[in-house]
Here is the input.
Amino acid sequence: MHSPEIASPPRKGLTASRFSADVVHIFVHGDPIAALSLVWLVMAAVQFATPNVIGIDGYYHIKFAWLIRHLGVRIDFPWLPLTLLNPRDFTDHHLLYHLLLVPFTLLDLREGAKLAALLFSVAAVSSAYLLLASLRVRYRLLWLLALLGSSDWFLVRESMTRRQSVSLLLLILAVYAMLFGRTRWLLPLAFAYAWLFDGFVLLIAVVGLWFAAGALAERRLDWPVVVRTGGGLALALLANPYFPNNLWFTIQHVFPKIVPESRVNVGTEWYPYPIPILLQSSWLALLFLVAGLIPLITSAAAIRRDRRAIFLAALALLSGALYLRARRFIELEPAFAVLFCAYVWSAYCPAGLQRWWCRLSPTTRFCAVAGLLLALTLQGGAVISKARIDAMAGRDYTTFQDASVWLMEHTEPGERVYQTDWDNFPELFYFNTYNTYIVGLDPTFMYLANPELYLLWRSIGRGQVEHPSEPIRELFQAQWVITDRTHVEFLTKAARDPAMVIVFEAPAAIVFQVSGV
Here is the structure.
């Protein structure tokens, strides 16, 4: 049962009491324009803290979208021939995201990537607010402030030119569709989600939680949601331009993340935060998850019959568990924790607390709201400042620019370039699709294709091979090597190898030619 709305007193001129009541009314009932403006300001503050594309993979995504605009939806992909993304097996596992990026390639690619990331992040965070409004949650502007101030890494992840903001948006739309009986939406939403990225198992889990909540609260099995979701996913997989490669790729890509291979060092986003860092960066997001459990205890009998409450609780717990396992799921946990906490406290706030609040004068309520607003503003300011620092911590986008231009001017089309780190690929690809490369986007793509070759490549990059020119020439069939200056151990070994000749140097990157090829 929702709490009764606070009645507004009749207008009698602009008095302190009236002003207080108006401010409380705005924060109780919300204001879409104020909410959207707030989200814009926060996400723009993070996005434009740096001229770089936030998130290294964004360089790959915007360049791939540019290729789609020029070459069509289905692209032969020659750039990573030693990985699962070789020309024969390639599938675009972010197809929908790349299609959404295509209009932004009409701009300067870097600027277009940043604008796209801003628009998508605003849409995702705003959708959480609109869901709060649809659920008639009170004080939703305060809840929105709480979401924006919940974690600096939530803001950074949503600001990346990667699929996570669109993923959150589609998941919230799916949640809305289930909460409000619009289950026919699930078929197109499932189709879109499967085309967005190969982690569509997330949508399966969300729909499964709604199905289970219906069985618990209403003693009925809601098979239509399963059928519509399954139909949308099946249609998306079968109608994919890369079918059947997309099916096999999904199995190979997702399974190692569920059962991690210890010999492959994937991106840090797949590993959990140490507990001190977790609490420091996300204490408020985790607090909402815990706070939401209180009404579950005090109103357990009523909540057992509330499918929405059970579903939102399960969804928040799932996203929390995923976040504890891998830091990348900070892109989901704050949003679903806030949605859960806001709903149960609005619907099941203890009656005694409600009566106490309603007995307060408008001025007293104003002071209480103002105090909470001040606290959330200070918290949000600290989080935004930290998020801006995190955004600025990335590598400068010009790191490989000059070296990439040199390679295009001094090599043959399609010649293989050996790079010393897998996460250099997006920037190299952004500047130079003239050459091909060794590994990129995810090291498991190379490991699954050829484990021995991957382990050798990793050892060379770490400076563990005395004469790197020989395996680079013989086994990797590469004449050119590009590295940044942070690979000190590799540079030390290369300096001792007479077959490794420096042919170009930039402030942050070096190009070697391997003699004897």
Summary: Confidence is low (pLDDT under 50) at residues 1-14. The first strand starts at residue 417 and ends at 419. Residues 401-514 form one domain.
